[in-house]
Structure formats: structure tokens, C-alpha cells
Amino acid sequence: MGVVERFLLFLQLVIDKNQVNMNYILKAVLVLLVLSVSPNLWAQSTKWRDIHKVKRHETIFGIARSYDLTIEELLDANPEMKEKGYELKKGSEIFIPYSKTSTTQPTPAKPSKPTTTAKGIDVVKVGIMLPFLDNSTEGKRMIEYYRGVRAALDSLGHMGIKTQVNLWNLNKDSVVTNVLKHNPQIANQDVIFGPLYTNQVHPLADFCHKHGARLVIPFSTTATDVNSNPNIFQIYQDEDELSARSRGAFVERFSHSHRPIFINCNNPSDGKYTFTRSLREYLESKNIQAEITDINTPLREFAKHFSQTQPNVVILNSAAYKPLERVFEKLDSLKNIDPSLIISTYGYNEWFIYQPYLEKDYFKYNVHIPTTFYYSRKSARTEVFEKLFEKDYGQKMNPDGLPRMGIMGFDHTMYFVLGLSHYGEKYVGNEQQNSEYKPLQTRLEFKKLKDGGYQNNNFQVIRFKTDGSVDSLTY
Questions:
Q1: Domain boundary at 321, 339, 371, which?
Q2: Is residue 157 one of the residues assigned to a domain?
Q3: For the ranges 35-49, 251-265, 391-405, the one whose mean pLDDT is highest
Q4: Any domain includes 285
Q5: Beta strand residue intervals within 11-139, DSSP E
Q6: In terms of C-beta distances under 8 Å and separation of at least 24 residues, what long-range contacts does 273-282 make, across chains too?
Q7: Which residue from 104, 145, 20, 34 is spatially nearest to 392, judged by alpha carbons?
């Protein structure tokens, strides 16, 4: 058990045994507390030292003094403070700029390689380039991701690992080359997380390659620079690869033991027709007979497609909630007629969103979900993280968003900063180098592409077993 796992387990014990001693709990959970981020972040090329959450009775003068700033510097970083009638309120989130006179202000420097010791990088410089200015759903998801990053950096600090964090706003309309041109400190980062938008990957990737920084692409599934750029670590695989691996996992697990039954849900808009068609074609090429029926087929005809002598596996050509709910209702009717039927279901990532509402059906019908992540709501480590996140921000992570952005930011930062602090320039992101940390949500294990960078190789099938347990089948 690594140091992080031991600490999280300790926190769980603290919470369980000290329900009434909140001051003690708060002291214990400092390792995971996150600095707040406002969705109203300022200028596109601004770089901030920190984000401050206003406490009761604090004043603009007192905050500026505590950060060794002038009033003008604080106001320039937060223009809304200059507006008529502005009042500083408890819970407000304001930006803390670098002072123009303070010795803590970083000065532009020529790009340089990371300073390393025998074990790795002494102070890991972390850059975040995401759309913080965007007040849309995407922007709010990025705020949550950043909070997870800060939680990880705080935890790493208490583990004795030194970091410096800088963030730059990169909205959908931002011109990446302009941001890079006006922010020379970007060249000095050891690792950069971003961008969100695929069209911004190439110029940022070229820049990182030129200056020796590692670029972690946390979201894009279609950027192809990882195939040729050795400085890239890409978290997600593209849709074609995921579809192929999902098809392969199905064939390995079901093709020789189950009767495949494809159910047409008459919902072509969600794009699953392509997957089911390719799976059917593959089964046909192997002379594996599959049944095809429709969600609207009368029950008597519907039942004829199911085998009473071998297990059945159901595949829907839709990932939407309503068709899935209707199929489960239809399967319930079948089971009422013939309880001996054995039925499994092969699904999609989107089904994790519906788990709180359909979980009993997932277990009843042995649902299998091919995925690159799994958010376990009942995991002790997850529960601890969520309690601390809610305690710090007064709100939970977005309950409808999967994967959870806050946990994702925490996982990515812990994984890469730990690795870089230990291995420096020799860091390649494989599981052996990162055995000290096991991600909460997204398994990370990178493989080197022949002429390029590193692609996360994780793929698993989450199985909801009929005995009420959940396990992960790794492929």
C-alpha cells in the first residue's frame, strides 16, 4: 500500500471515529483541500499566483497585504472590484496575481531543461491551459478539474514534493500561438495539462516538443499528434480504437458461450449503430449466429429469439436511457414467464450515468460496460475524496458528469507529478514507475507509440454480477 493510499485510509478512519470533532477532522483533511476557482476568470493571457476564497470580515486591503501586493495590483487582476457598488463578500473567489515588486514574482527566462537530481525533479513546474473563462457547462467542468489538480498539489506538498503551478486561460476562441508568445514562462513548465479543444493541440504540442515539456492531453480523443510527438501523453484513445477493443472484449467473453441478441431501439442519433453493425459483421464472418429483434416487437415474438438451453447476451444499438429502461422492462416480462432464462447485457460508457436509477437491473441482468474509466461510488477512497471536496466548496462534484472531473484532475496530477518528481527526464508514465499511486477513477498505464509519444493503454470491462458485486475485467 503506497503512501497516498495509506493517507486516504487514515482519513477515512479519522472521519469514522471523529464525527463530532470537526476541528480535528479539518486539520487531518488539509492534505486534500483545494483552493477555489471562480468561473469568472480574467484575461486570456493572464497568469495567476493563486485564487483566494474570501473569509468573513476580510477586506481588500488586508488580502492585498497578506499576499504582499498593492491595492492596484489586486484590483487590476480582479476588474469587477472596480465596478461601482462592488462589495467583498464571504465566499467570493478572487485572483491573486504575482506582485510586480515582490521577490516571489517569477521572471521570464530562456527555456531550460528540468532541474533534476538523481531521483528526479526537485520542484515540478505544472502548467494548466484550459478554458476557465468559459461560463458554459464545459467551463464549469474545467473548474472542477482544476480543483482536483489543486487538491493533488496540496497533497503532494504534504508528502514533501515541491511544485509550482501556473494556469493560463485557453478558451475555444483563443489563439494558442498568441498565448504562447505573450507568456514566456510556459516554456519552463515540466508538465502541461491541456488543452480541451482538439484544434488547439497541434500548436501547443509543437511548442512542448521544442521546449522539452511534457504535454498531458486529458480530454481530446481525436488529436493525432501523439503518433509523432514524443512529448505527448494522451489519456484517451480514439473512438475507432475503443470500438475495436470493445468488440474484441465481447468476442472473447461471449461469442462461444452465449447467444447474441441484437435489439433495435430505433434511435440512430446516438451513433451506436456503427458499433453494433461492425460487431454483427464480425460474428457473421466467424459463422456465429446472432438474433435480431426490435424493442417494439410483441413479447411473444420477442421471446422466440432467446435460448432456453444456453446463456443469452443482449446488445442494444442505443446508449440512451429510455430504450435501456424499456429493454429491462421487457426482460422482466420474459423472466416472469421463464425464470430459468440466463441473460447478460453488453453496454456503453453512458450507462454509468444511469447507474443510480437502474442499478438493480444492472445486477439482475449481468451488465457489462466496456470503458477506460470507472467511478466507484462505494469505494472508501472515493467517499473520502468526495467528503473533503464538498467540505471545502460547500457543494458536491457535478452528479451528472462522468467521469468526475474533480477526481480526474486529482488522478492525473498525482500520477504525473509523483512520477516526474521521482524519475525526471526518464519518466515514461508506465505502471511500474507509478506503483506508488493507484488512480481513483481512470487507470493510467502508458505505452510508447513507435514514432511518437505515449498513449494510455487502459481498457477494461466493468461487470455488475448477479451476486451484487462489481468487478473489473482488464484487457
A1: 371
A2: no
A3: 251-265
A4: yes
A5: 48-53, 93-97, 123-130
A6: 273/317, 274/243, 275/243, 275/246, 275/247, 275/317, 276/315, 276/316, 276/317, 278/243, 278/247, 279/247, 279/250, 279/315, 282/247, 282/251
A7: 34
